[in-house]
Structure formats: structure tokens, C-alpha cells
Amino acid sequence: MADRLAQVSSHLNFPRGLFDGQTAIITGAGQGIGAEAARLFANEGAKVVVADIDAQKASAVAKSINDAAPGRALAVAGDVMNAAYIDDLVKKAAEFGGGKIHILVNNAGFTWDGVIHKITDKQWDTMLAVHNTAPFKLVRAAAPYFRVKDKEPRVIIQISSTSGIHGNAGQANYALAKAGVVGLTKTIAKEWGPQFGVRANTVAFGYITTRLTAAKEAGGTITTPDGTKVALGIPGRPNPKDVNPEQAYADIPLRRPGSPEEAARSIIAVASPWFSYVNGETISVTGGRNI
């Protein structure tokens, strides 16, 4: 009994961080939830690959991490919808990690809203490309580093949304794509869990204060690979400082939206050893909304 307790205790002791000796790729890590997740992973001992379409933002996040912990972050900029970039990202991550990759967070994405009868083929195809095809191709490219039997933890986390669980008016393309993420996650868990012990889970966010949930009038945009500028945000959304929480967030039991850091903490939790027996699940992070 004493030997067993000592063994358990050794597994729960993380003096150098929860992810000491592990390498993580986080896409869309140049800002928002992804950037906060990169910092938190690094703070818990991981070597972090900051992947983002914006080279300047990716480099800034990596620098902020390396200033505090030298050599712990690498920026690899590029478009996840570009197959060549996916291969380059995996190659550089493996080199950075000494030949190993342990954690993959498919976080990159954006919204391109429209009501069903007005959504264009381009809007539709782009949402599926960035939220479904890109994560699939990244998982497939990283397969040699996850389908291994070295007894080290391997975790894949897909970022979804409550739009993918409940649907959302004006977001048929985004809702479908985010629902598809759940199916991909469960399939990874069933295919790679039995032989290789890979855990795959989905984190579905509700109202988190990011550029995707800010007021559309604030002017947030993203430019697609072909040069199309897409406006981000929600039309008519008031400034959070100007609202009565009891009224504006009446459908959220905590009466407020979540912060990017709070969202990132949930990613860290799901990736951590504390969730070692959680696999194939969709974890909603909503402040209690939709319960």
C-alpha cells in the first residue's frame, strides 16, 4: 500500500510545471485565446510553437515568452489553409521539440457570418476550410509524432463553439464547421486512443471577449488568402463597460462574458495530467450559459 501511495504521489508532483519536457503547437496563437494559451503552456514548462497567419503578432508572443523563459517559444507564421505551411509547421515543431510533439491545439479560425439564404459559396467553403480541413490536415501531418508508444502523454485539443452545439442565427457555415470539429475529435480518440494512448477532446466556448465577439462596428477584420477583407464581430454589440450585466448577460449565470485568459486556462486544464482519463469529450466553457 505504501509503495502504491508513493507511486501515485510521484505522478502528482510537477516541480517544473505540468508540461515539463513537452512540446506544444498552438495555432492562432498570435492573439486572444491562443496567445494566452501559449503563455500558460510555457509557464507550465512546455516548449511552445506559436503558429499564426500574422508573423508580427506571432513573433511578439514568442518574444514575450522567451524574455521570461529563454528558448521556450518558437514563432512559425503561415496560413493553416496552406498545405505547404502545415508540413513546415510540423517539421519545425518537431525540430524544436527534439524530435517530439506532445500537444496540438487547433485553435485558429474566424467567423464569416450571413443568413442562410445569403451565404455565398465562398463564405461556406472558407469556414469549412479553416475549421475542418486545416485541423484535419494538421492532425494527419503530425500523426508520426502522436502514433508512438514511448509512454509519454499525447493530447489533441480542438477548439469549437456553442454555435456548433446549439446552432446560431446568421452562422450556418460556422455552426456546421464547429459541429464537425466534434466528430473529428471523437474519431481521433477512437482511432489513436487504444494503441497509442492519445487523448483528444473538444473545448467549446461560449461568450468570450475576443475580436470575434466584439462590436462589428469596432472595425475588426481579417484578410483571406485571396485578399478578401472579412469584417469580424457582432453588429450592434454594445461596449461591455456600458451595459447592465443583469440585463446584458441575463442568460449567463455568472452574469459576464469570459476573458481570453479564462478560456485559455480551460485548454491547459484539458491538456493537463489532471484530465488524464478524459477522452473524446466536448467540454463547454460558457459561464453556465445553455445549461
Automatic annotation (TrEMBL):
Top-rank taxon of the source lineage equals Eukaryota
Please report the stretch or stretches of sequence annotated as the Ketoreductase domain. 22-195
Pfam families annotated for this entry? Answer: adh_short (PF00106)
One Gene Ontology term of the biological-process aspect is: fatty acid biosynthetic process
Q: InterPro entries, alphabetically?
A: KR_dom, NAD(P)-bd_dom_sf, SDR_fam
Q: Which SUPFAM superfamilies match?
A: NAD(P)-binding Rossmann-fold domains
Q: Does the keyword RNA-binding apply?
A: no
- Write the record's keywords in alphabetical order, separated by commas: NADP, Oxidoreductase
Q: Which GO molecular function entries does the Swiss-Prot or TrEMBL record give?
A: oxidoreductase activity, acting on the CH-OH group of donors, NAD or NADP as acceptor; quinone binding
**Keyword Oxidoreductase in record:** yes
- Indicate the family of this protein: Belongs to the short-chain dehydrogenases/reductases (SDR) family.
User: Which PANTHER family does this chain map to?
Assistant: 3-OXOACYL-[ACYL-CARRIER-PROTEIN] REDUCTASE, SHORT-CHAIN DEHYDROGENASES/REDUCTASES FAMILY MEMBER
Write the protein's name.
Answer: 3-oxoacyl-reductase
Q: Which organism is it from?
A: Talaromyces proteolyticus
